[in-house]
């Protein structure tokens, strides 16, 4: 597939790929790892679309060297992975599992040996099951246990990890895991899930302090953002759009940047104690932005428990997840962040951006995925346009390196630059892998590997 030449990116722009532990590692019973809420959820009948679990996933735990070689062949300068909390602290607190830390040390050293920056995310939704049984993120104590865990990981890897990310998408973990129950741990609290938001952010702030005490590397958080498209021109529609923007985009950004929680949603904030907001607003070095699509919103029907109604957007191509492909939304989002937060906004890295399609090998064993190439081409151009508008963006991580176990969708959705045969584990780079390798080589002004 031919595309127009990509605009130049600055020297030093970070080119990366992202994954998460439960989605690719497998080895659920290896090295003393404890159970997570996703083990419990996936093994509960009816929770996962195809009935699968992450017990084996992509077997990255045993095949990490092969996967790092794929990254090196792609030419990326950074790899964003997550550390499995229950692999390091099987009970979530207390005894440290040295064998689990050994795996991450091997991975980090393998990355550095190939000139790839390790970017470590500490929490990508796999809370240790014993902490969930004690209340999970509804329990304030979990924030303090998270800080302990951050200290343990940084004590071992703080001299080699190049960027720390505390939490991944706390909005999604709150809303799907605790609001609607579609994700682990499967709670259905709707707006009563606010304590989950607060305790995640409190844990973030406490972890920032722990990381800075052990490591000189920069610290970030990775938030999921979605620009709001208001459908309807009535005052109630505008109010619905404002409410959704406060929930999805501002709830996990305003307090990080010292502005407190948005008040439009009427949350019961009695869980917020004196001094908490100061802890949460610890200075960030980078804001991670995960972007997939905009959200259509209009006024809700009378009697709805929510102040908005979500409406599918039309007029866009769709992914296999039925998400609209809207690169303009990424440029709009970056511009909104720039205007909304001004000088309070730290440099941005796009820590996830990608698409699911039903990619299958052809008769020659190749995996053509022209839709993914078009997606990445459009979104990279959107990032470069936002940079030209004055937004400080310093990196872009593709979700994902590998086809993986996609949470409640199981093995039915493929996001990877590399096709994985889930029966054998065999990896086959797709056409998007080759395309991106050329883009990165041109951006880095060097021959492709």
UniProtKB/TrEMBL annotation:
Assigned EC number: 3.2.1.21
Residues that bind substrate: 23, 124, 168, 292, 399, 406-407
GO BP terms, alphabetized: cellulose catabolic process
Pfam families: Glyco_hydro_1 (PF00232)
Coiled-coil region: none
Top-rank EC class of the record's enzyme: hydrolase
Molecular-function GO term, any one: beta-glucosidase activity
An annotated GO cellular component: cytosol
Catalyzed reaction equations: Hydrolysis of terminal, non-reducing beta-D-glucosyl residues with release of beta-D-glucose
Annotated active site: 169, 352
Protein name: Beta-glucosidase
């Amino acid at each position: 597939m031919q595309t127009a030449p990509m605009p130049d990116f600055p020297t030093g722009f970070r080119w990366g790929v992202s994954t998460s532990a439960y989605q690719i590692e497998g080895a659920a019973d290896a090295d003393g790892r404890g159970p997570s809420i996703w083990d419990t959820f996936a093994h509960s009948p009816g929770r996962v679309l195809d009935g699968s679990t992450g017990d084996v996933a992509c077997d990255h735990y045993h095949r990490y060297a092969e996967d790092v070689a794929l990254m090196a062949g792609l030419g990326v300068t950074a790899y964003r992975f997550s550390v499995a909390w229950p692999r390091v602290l099987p009970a979530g607190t207390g005894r440290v599992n040295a064998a689990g830390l050994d795996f991450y040390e091997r991975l980090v050293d393998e990355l550095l040996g190939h000139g790839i920056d390790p970017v470590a995310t500490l929490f990508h939704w796999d809370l240790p099951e014993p902490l969930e049984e004690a209340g999970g993120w509804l329990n304030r104590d979990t924030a303090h246990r998270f800080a302990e865990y951050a200290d343990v990981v940084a004590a071992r890897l703080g001299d080699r990890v190049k960027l720390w990310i505390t939490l991944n998408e706390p909005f999604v973990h709150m809303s799907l895991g605790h609001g609607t129950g579609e994700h682990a741990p499967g709670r259905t609290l709707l707006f009563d899930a606010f304590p989950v938001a607060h305790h995640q952010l409190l844990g973030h702030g406490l972890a920032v302090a722990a990381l800075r005490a052990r490591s000189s590397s920069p610290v970030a958080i990775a938030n999921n953002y979605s620009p709001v498209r208001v459908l309807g021109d009535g005052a109630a529609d505008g109010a619905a759009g404002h409410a959704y923007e406060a929930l999805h985009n501002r709830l996990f950004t305003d307090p990080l940047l010292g502005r407190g929680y948005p008040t439009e949603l009427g949350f019961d904030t009695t869980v917020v104690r004196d001094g908490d907001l100061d802890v949460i607003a610890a200075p960030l070095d980078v804001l991670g932005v995960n972007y997939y699509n905009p959200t259509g919103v209009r006024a809700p029907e009378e009697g709805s428990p929510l102040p908005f109604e979500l409406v599918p957007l039309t007029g866009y191509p769709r992914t296999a997840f039925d998400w609209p492909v809207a690169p303009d939304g990424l440029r709009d989002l970056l511009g909104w962040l720039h205007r909304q937060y001004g000088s309070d906004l730290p440099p941005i890295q796009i820590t996830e951006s990608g698409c699911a399609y039903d990619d299958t090998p052809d008769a020659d064993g190749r995996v053509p995925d022209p839709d993914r190439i078009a997606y990445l081409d459009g979104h990279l151009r959107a990032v470069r346009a936002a940079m030209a508008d004055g937004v400080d963006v310093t990196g872009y991580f593709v979700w994902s390196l590998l086809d993986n176990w996609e949470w409640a969708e199981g093995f039915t959705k493929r996001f990877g630059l590399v096709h994985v045969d889930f029966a054998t584990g065999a990896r086959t780079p797709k056409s998007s892998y080759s395309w991106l390798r050329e883009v990165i080589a041109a951006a880095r002004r060097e021959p492709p590997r």
